[in-house]
Amino acid sequence: MIYYVVGKPRSGKTYWAVNMINNLVKSKSDDFDQIYTNIGGFKYDQFENVKKLDYEWFFDTWVRDLHDYFKKAKREHDDYDHHIVEKVRQDGFYRSIFFCDEAQEYLSRDLAHIRWLFSYQGHLGFNFYFITQALGLIKPKYKYTIEYVVSPVASSFKLSNKYSKYNYYATTRMLRSDKYMSERLFFRKEIFDLYKSGDKIKHKSFLIPKLIMLAFLFGGLFAYYKFSMSAFAGDPVKVKSDNPDASKYQYSSAKKNDHAVPPARKVHKMSDAGDQLLRIRCYDSICSSKHFQDIPYPVLRKFFAADFTVVNSVQNMYSIDIYVTVSSRTLDMFVDFVAAKPTKDKKDMLSLH
């Protein structure tokens, strides 16, 4: 089987490999006889069946010679496979697991004996774990026979320094659709003590300070908003009565650019039967809503009379929004009045402005 462990420097890929070696040794499995690795700083004295791999000699010399031996045995023997297995057994590599760090050093070249090894490794009881910084550094022909790719999430994207997350992909494309599982490995001192690597350096995630900064930013904005609402709120809309029949609308004394919501007047409970909340926008005492257009404010006050209760008002740059409660029945009557044909009474009322 062939596996790739892919990740940026100090992302946790070597930690994953050493943890895997430790688990394999402790499992005392009958599926392999020994483990070879070239991981830097690995403490071989901690294990009986983990041996140092001379990476250059193994791939450039031993595999090349074995490939030549294979071609000769195939010409001379019908049971050439048996001869190859015995040769590998004598050399001490049969049923071995290889953890090869910096795999791009030898897998970036298209070599016939390496291609043969990838196609024939199952007969020899080999399992390869190739550790590399990027699959783009590996020749495409060495990617066709893989079992899976494991990739650690970069340390700068982690929310915790206590563990590393690893994604497993079924293909070397490493697309989201290719991912079939994820796992977390919590960092353990006993694993770090088995090798020396940049993985031991604790790298802080840039996400944590950014999330803290965003929390303070949103908190500050919310506090500023609440302070602005309380410190710069304008006065309520005032309606001054000049005669018993009509009232003339005046703007509040709020500043021209003040968008604050003034305190509410007496509010009808919206649960009262027939009440509706209506927003009216007025430009220089001429008002409109979704039910009517361009009606003088005094006309609204006269028509609705007691049914017209101001709840809130919002001063805009060139207009003011007035929120009122009115009865549905009176609102329907007013809409019909506005839509009706002009009459003397209607003209008299509209002339109040």
Automatic annotation (TrEMBL):
UniProtKB keywords: Membrane, Transmembrane, Transmembrane helix
Domain of life: Bacteria
UniProt xrefs under InterPro entries: P-loop_NTPase, Zot_N
Membrane-traversing stretches: 206-225
Keyword Transmembrane: yes
Domain Zona occludens toxin N-terminal, first and last residues per copy: 1-197
Pfam families from the UniProt entry: Zot
SUPFAM superfamilies reported for this sequence: P-loop containing nucleoside triphosphate hydrolases
Entry keyword DNA-binding: no
This protein's name: Zona occludens toxin N-terminal domain-containing protein
Source organism of this protein record: Sulfurovum lithotrophicum
